[in-house]
Design goal:
Strands 4-3-2-1-5 form a 5-stranded mixed sheet. The protein contains 2 helices and 5 strands. Belongs to the bacterial ribosomal protein bS16 family.
C-alpha cells in the first residue's frame, strides 16, 4: 500500500517538511518513491506558511489509491484535490482558505 506523508527535514526548532510518496510501512526518513512538494510550518513575516505542491502528480497518486496521512489530507483539502474530512462535532466541514495553483504568465 502506498501513502503520502510528511518527511521532516531542517534543524532543531526549525522544522521543514517534504511531502513524499512512499510505501506505507516504511519510515518517512527512507528514500521516497517521489517527492510531491514542500511545507514550511514557520510563518513568514506576513503570517503565511509556504507550501509548494505538484498538483498533477498529487492527483495522479490519489487516483491510483495512495492514502494521505491526516496532516497531508488537510493540505490536499485546502488545495481542493480531495474533499475535506469531517471533523467530530461539526455538522459540515467549514470552508477554508484554498491554496491557489501557480498561474503561468501568458505572452
Amino acid at each position: 500500500m502506498i501513502s503520502i506523508k510528511l518527511a521532516r527535514h531542517g534543524l532543531k526548532n526549525t522544522p521543514f517538511y517534504h511531502i513524499v510518496v512512499l510505501q506505507s510501512r516504511s519510515r518517512p526518513t527512507r528514500k521516497p518513491i517521489e517527492q510531491l512538494g514542500t511545507f514550511n510550518p514557520i510563518p513568514n513575516k506576513d503570517g503565511s506558511k509556504d507550501i509548494t505542491l505538484n498538483f498533477e502528480r498529487a492527483k495522479y497518486w490519489i487516483g491510483v489509491g495512495a492514502k494521505p496521512s491526516e496532516s497531508v489530507a488537510r493540505i490536499l483539502a485546502k488545495a481542493d484535490i480531495i474533499p475535506p474530512r469531517p471533523r467530530p462535532g461539526m455538522p459540515n466541514p467549514s470552508p477554508s482558505t484554498p491554496i491557489k495553483a501557480p498561474t503561468t504568465p501568458s505572452a
